[in-house]
Specification:
Blueprint: H1 2-26, H2 32-49, H3 52-62, H4 66-87, H5 93-99, H6 103-115, H7 121-138, H8 143-147, H9 153-171, H10 180-204, H11 213-248, H12 253-265, H13 271-299
Helix pairs in contact: 1-5, 1-11, 1-12, 2-4, 2-10, 2-11, 3-10, 4-9, 4-10, 5-12, 6-9, 6-11, 7-13
Length: 303
Amino acid sequence: MNRNAYVFLLTTALLWGGNAVAGKFAVGHISPMLLTMLRWFLAFLLIACMSIRPIIRDWKEIKPHIPLLAGLGAFGFTFFNMALYSALNYTSAINVTIEQAGIPMVIFLTNLLLFGTRVRPGQIFGFSLSLIGVALTAGHGNFARLASLDVNFGDALMILAVLLYSGYTVALRFRPSIHWQSLMTVMTFFAFLTAVPFTIWEWYSGAINPPDLTGTIVVLYTAVFPSLAAQVLFIKGVEYIGANRAGLFINAVPIFGTLLAVALLREDFQLYHAVALVLVLGGIWIAELSGRKHARANEAGVP
């Protein structure tokens, strides 16, 4: 089961790393709010076509949980991606993917504070390494910039995105026990619905930019891969090994995102990026090793 979880979560990280690169490609080719709305509208249509029977079967369970599912779709899908795509107008795809690695630390802290989830010393150490890597990236290699709050606006938006997706991941524990197709259909519908007023605002403000060919390709990619495939794989990964351990694999997003950004966008790879990636990779390895040992001990009945 763990092996399946690892495959699912690493594939998720690859697709999400591609999402940041696709968002950078979108700059100048489609505006952020319109991209978010079209992405989730197309994702909803695709999943809904395959989910009529599960929706009918699960409707009694879905109905009382509509407010929760609407919130999950809004915060985890719409608001997160709006912040991410907007951030890419001001900062690099490499920065965005590395900063995304802050999500697991926020998930751990939230679970600890709200639900008393136990955290092992090795996990704390691993997350601390990852957090240092994220801070190094946000400060563009200079921690003093963070201390003086001299942070690029795009990096600040990405930190907001981190908080939004962390909250979504923690809240997944409250989702109803329904088929994954039903879950994704309802959440993508509300993600699209939530994006509509923001797109209208973008239009009224004169900031809307209809998609050209490149923008259309970005919409198609983000709708199919980061929106549907990655979200389903992430949900299954959380089911297999829990939010704390599954959230760790988001730290692999910087690895894939950085490689893709350098290869496809020809972005400059700085020394502080390399140091941050080492910290992130080391953090995920140490924390997951500790979490796996703790899980095995629990299975064996060892306190």
